[in-house]
Amino acid sequence: MVPFKTNNIGGYTVPNKKVTGKKAASSASKTLKGKATGSSSKTAAGSALSQRKAPKNQASPKAAKAASKTLRDGRSSKASKSAAGSALAQTKKKK
């Protein structure tokens, strides 16, 4: 596997082939349907859901930041945290 160059000096990004599992996708769907769900949680859930069966898709830096914020927030539901964890696991990894 050949790493892809990034704009970082000497940095490489290793492709991530993970996809969102069935349980995390269900959690993401519940999160998106929730009326009281915050925007960070919905961003992370949308990112996780978009990667359900698409190993080439990776979470954007914005989605990764939203997922991190959701995981740190004590008010986030279990479903939101499950979706956020899935989205965060599918970000580009630095080598």
Describe this structure in words.
This protein is mainly α and 95 residues long. It has one domain (17-94). 51% of the residues lie in helices and 7% in strands. Helix 1 runs antiparallel to helix 2 (39-50), helix 1 (22-33) packs across helix 4 (78-89) and helix 3 runs antiparallel to helix 4. The protein is globular and about 40 Å long. Mean pLDDT is 85; it is low at 1-9.
Structure summarized in a few sentences:
With 95 residues, the protein is mainly alpha-helical.
In order across it, which strands form the biggest sheet?
1-2-3
Number of helices: 4
Low-confidence stretches: 1-9
Structural category is mainly alpha
Give the SSE string.
EEHHHHE
The helicity comes to 40-55%
Q: How many domains make up the 3D coordinates?
A: 1
Beta content: 5-15%
Largest pleated sheet: 3 strands, antiparallel
Q: What gap, in angstroms, lies between the N and C termini?
A: 13 Å
Rounded to an integer, what's the Rg over CA atoms? 14 Å
Question: What is the overall pLDDT average?
Answer: 85
Number of strands: 3
* Quaternary structure type: single chain
Shape: globular
